[in-house]
Amino acid sequence: MVNVAALRCKECSREYPIGAFNVCDFCFGPLEVVYDMDAIADIASRERIMSGPNSLWRYADFLPAEYNPLVDINAGFTPLIRSRGLAERLGLEELWIKNDSVNPSYSFKDRVVAVATAKALELGFETLACASTGNLACAVAAHAARAGMKAYVFIPSDLEAGKVLGAAIYDPTMIAVNGSYDDVNRLCSELADQYQWAFVNINVRPFYADGSKTLGYEVAEQLGWRAPAHAVAPSASGAMFTKIYQGLKEFEYTGIIDNVETRMHCAQARGCSPIATAYEEGRFVIRPVKPATIAKSLGIGNPADGYYALKTIEASGGSAVIAEEHEVAEGIKLLAQTEGIFTEGAGGVAIAGLKRLVERGEIQPDEPTVVYITGNGLKTTEIVSDVVKPILIEGTVSAFEQGVGVKA
Amino acid sequence: MATTMQRVRFTFLDHMIKQPVIYRMGHDFDVVTNIRRADVQEGVGWVILEVEGELEEIERGLDWVRSLGVRVDHALGDLIEP
């Protein structure tokens, strides 16, 4: 592969050959993929991208794995929709909604898992694994099914069955672990060391994370080869947030687009806001928290990339914003009722965060803005179950007119 | 019993920053500690370290650290993702 040079520690910059490891032996810092960006610039072009498949694999030149049809269930290249109703409600002239809730397993996790799966096959793995409470499990199980790989999904034993039905349907080996989340974390760390599995967010995490770069590339392409002035994205581990910006900057470096001056805004919910709290307190030290948010898909209390998300905010001149818990459902409803898009808790946080950023004056009405909607509302219907309140009538026209308050 | 190794992150708040927690853990429990990276700022600090020993002894030591009010996490963040 021409474009991937090495793995490198994000802290001490030690380099490692390409392989299934994610942590620096010396300083325990996280590893990331290093690309030969000049080699990519030599071959990449808008035309080459546009002639590629209608999935994230159109950006294969910028990814750490080769396109492999065996794993392709069409993750990515999701719609970017020009907002009308929501933009008007918020007083914005150019608002765009990146609707990643329509991925194959209904969240952005399909992007990262698609890349991790392709790389896992390249590295000779036959088994995919993850520890998850929802979206990640669905994406891993779906991609393993497509690729003909074995899948192991670890879940906390107190998780409701309904939360992982979207994963179970693909028939992975699902293991419910007794104990705390810390116990599940420790077990998976030990298993990743002892078994020859591709644990998508552990030993192949550097490749996995780079799947989210495509959220930057796609928006730039769909905006007509330009970067927005603002990007608002929900954040859990902080990885997706940092990779969106990396994607935009790589497009700038390779000449695919000009002048990336995008300000990156990170949205978290009050009940789990370690990144946004550090930002508000002016610190680069993340204080881990115990997640207690209705937006379960953002429930990471000890975010692996929290520090790097803060650095991305700083580098881009962006900010972080906290949505109150009651605003999460309001955000979901507002998006659904103004744009016809039904998102889960993370999307509600993004919309509530966007609203606050506009109120704060961080986003001016004439500045092109993109808000990332990363998961589908059908996954968390309990958050908004109060919307179901039909008008009960007898089966007559008069009862209808009386009940609804209309007259023919 | 075989020895094992864990990579952990201690997060200290306020007054705990001044306490020799890591020294005492190595002294009072049968574990070897090895600091790899740290950042201590006003009011909050963290240390990433390797702890080696028998699993049960490591757990006893980490439980003691937690009992002091120090937060103990996996060094690379939460591995269980939504």
Which CATH C-level class of the largest domain in chain A is it? Alpha Beta
- Give the tally of structural domains of chain B: 1
Contiguous runs where pLDDT drops below 50 for at least 5 residues of chain B: none
Strand order of the largest sheet of chain A: 4-5-13-10-11-12
Derived structural class of chain B: alpha+beta
* Extended strand count of chain A: 13
- Annotation field: number of helices of chain B: 2
**Largest sheet strand order of chain B:** 2-3-1-4
Q: From N to C, what is the helix and strand string of chain B?
A: EHEEHEE
Order of helices and strands of chain A: EEEHHEHEHEHEHEHEHHEHEHHEHHEH
Largest binding interface between chains: A-B, 45 and 26 residues
Structural class by secondary-structure content of chain A: alpha/beta
> How many structural domains does the protein architecture of chain A include?
3
Distance between the termini of chain B: 35 Å
Provide the gyration radius of chain A in Å: 21 Å
CATH architecture annotation name of the largest domain in chain A: 3-Layer(aba) Sandwich
Question: Helicity range of the residues of chain B?
Answer: 25-40%
Helix content of chain A: 25-40%
Please report the distance between the alpha carbons of the first and last residues of chain A.
69 Å
Fill in the CATH topology of chain B. Answer: Alpha-Beta Plaits
Q: Which CATH first-tier class of chain B would you pick?
A: Alpha Beta
Please describe what this structure looks like.
With 408 residues, chain A is of the alpha/beta class. Chain A has three domains: 44-68, no CATH class; 80-106 and 211-387, Rossmann fold, CATH 3.40.50; 124-203, 3-Layer(aba) Sandwich (Rossmann fold). Chain A has 15 helices and 13 strands. In chain A, the strands form three sheets. In chain A, strands 4-5-13-10-11-12 form a six-stranded mixed sheet, with helices on both faces. In chain A, a hairpin with a 5-residue loop joins strand 1 (4-9) and strand 2. In chain A, helix 9 packs across helix 10 (239-253). The longest helix of chain A has 16 residues, at 345-360. The termini of chain A are far apart. The model of chain A has no long low-confidence stretch (mean pLDDT 96). Chain B is α+β, with helices and mostly antiparallel strands and 82 residues long. Chain B has a single domain, classed as Alpha-Beta Plaits (2-Layer Sandwich). Helices cover 26% and strands 46% of the residues of chain B. Chain B has helices spanning 21-28, 55-67; strands at residues 3-13, 32-41, 44-54, 71-74, 80-81. Chain B has a four-stranded antiparallel sheet with strand order 2-3-1-4, with helices on one face. In chain B, a hairpin with a 2-residue loop joins strand 2 and strand 3. In chain B, helix 1 runs antiparallel to helix 2. Chain B is globular, with a radius of gyration of 13 Å. The N and C termini of chain B lie far apart (35 Å). The model of chain B has no long low-confidence stretch (mean pLDDT 91). The interface between A and B is large, with 45 and 26 residues.
